Automatic annotation (TrEMBL):
Coiled coil: none annotated. It catalyses: L-glutaminyl-[peptide chain release factor] + S-adenosyl-L-methionine = N(5)-methyl-L-glutaminyl-[peptide chain release factor] + S-adenosyl-L-homocysteine + H(+). The lineage of its organism: Bacteria, Pseudomonadati, Campylobacterota, Epsilonproteobacteria, Campylobacterales. InterPro entries: DNA_methylase_N6_adenine_CS, HemK-like, N5-glutamine_MTase, PrmC_N, RF_methyltr_PrmC, SAM-dependent_MTases_sf, Small_mtfrase_dom. Pfam families: MTS, PrmC_N. PANTHER family: HEMK METHYLTRANSFERASE, MTRF1L RELEASE FACTOR GLUTAMINE METHYLTRANSFERASE. Keywords: Methyltransferase, S-adenosyl-L-methionine, Transferase. NCBIfam families: hemK_fam, RF_mod_PrmC. Gene3D superfamilies: DNA helicase RuvA subunit, C-terminal domain (1.10.8.10), Vaccinia Virus protein VP39 (3.40.50.150). One of its GO terms (biological process) is methylation. It comes from uncultured Sulfurovum sp. Residues 5-72 form the Release factor glutamine methyltransferase N-terminal domain. This is peptide chain release factor N(5)-glutamine methyltransferase.
Length: 273
């Protein structure tokens, strides 16, 4: 089959699993051929090499496997991160958290921070690239994120300033810190997620407990107990009210919530001291 015929075939296979089947068919074929999408249109009469291997890619996507896991890479902020099954695919809304943290780092001249729940390394890589004097200790409880984040810190030559530690929250981090950032698991255990997320993305990255905000609250308590000045976290759209009550109960200097681009409550910044 030539490129044109192959794209038509692949788009049909992807109709049920993808919102934009033609676009995704093009992305997958471009990946398979190691070319960009413009090549597909310029040379649409060329035969597709190794068509069976391409069909296997399409059938993975047709069963809802995320595109990023199939190609092993995710675009985020201004970077391309290695990703694989077992690591959360970084989401665009997390870029807002990064921008808020960047404002604080700049304003306060902060040089020592930690990230809880590093995943692919998305947050730490972007922040370390923005601030050349910043050092980061990044924690995670799972082995695959630790492996993948390490590869991303190396990819961007940040491994001298970003250290990764296997740790529950900050249990293994005793260094003095000025700020903690986290996009922790915050979804309730019984929440029904879309198939592509529920079947493929790691449970440890998604579910925060039977209510959902348990880990968020524990992070707040741990950061407060350590006398760290700032905490910035992503959270669920319905967690503003319970987190407000929690901040008032534990006592913090100030807190503010932020929204995502769709207008949903999406996270907070707390100042403790
Ligand atoms: C929602 S993902 C965020 C990944 C990445 N920071 C991002 O924004 O794309 C949450 C991460 O927290 C990790 N995690 C879950 N519980 C944790 C805990 N108690 N302490 C540290 N990390 C934890 C998960 O393994 C997962 O990698």
């Amino acid at each position: 089959m030539n490129i044109n015929e192959t794209l038509k075939w692949a788009s049909k296979q992807l109709v049920e699993s993808c919102e934009r089947p033609t676009f995704e068919a093009e992305l997958l074929l471009a990946y398979h051929l190691k070319k960009d999408r413009t090549y597909l249109h310029a040379f649409d009469n060329n035969e597709v090499i190794q068509p069976e291997a391409f069909k296997r890619l399409v059938s993975r996507r047709a069963t809802h496997e995320p595109y990023e896991y199939i190609v092993g890479e995710a675009s985020f902020y201004d970077i391309e991160l290695n990703v694989e099954a077992g690591v959360l695919i970084p989401r665009p809304e997390t870029e807002i958290l990064i921008d808020l943290v960047a404002e604080i780092i700049e304003k306060e001249n902060i040089t020592h921070i930690a990230e809880v729940g590093v995943g692919s390394g998305a947050i730490s890589v972007v922040l370390a690239r923005k601030f050349s004097k910043l050092t980061i200790i990044a924690t995670d409880i799972c082995d695959t994120p630790i492996k993948v984040a390490t590869s991303n810190f190396k990819k961007y030559a940040l491994d001298d300033r970003v250290e990764i530690r296997k740790s529950n929250i900050l249990d293994e981090v005793n260094e003095a810190l000025e700020l903690v950032v986290s996009n922790p698991p915050y979804i309730a255990d019984d929440f029904e997620l879309e198939k592509n997320v529920a079947d493929y993305e790691p449970k440890e990255a998604l579910f925060g407990g039977s209510v959902g905000d348990e880990l968020l609250k524990q992070i707040v308590l741990d950061v407060k107990e350590r006398n760290i000045k700032y905490l910035a976290c992503e959270m669920g759209y319905d967690q503003k009210e319970p987190m407000t009550q929690f901040f008032n109960k534990v006592g913090v200097k100030s807190y503010k919530f932020y929204k995502d681009l769709a207008g949903f409550d999406r996270g907070f910044v707390v100042e403790f001291t």
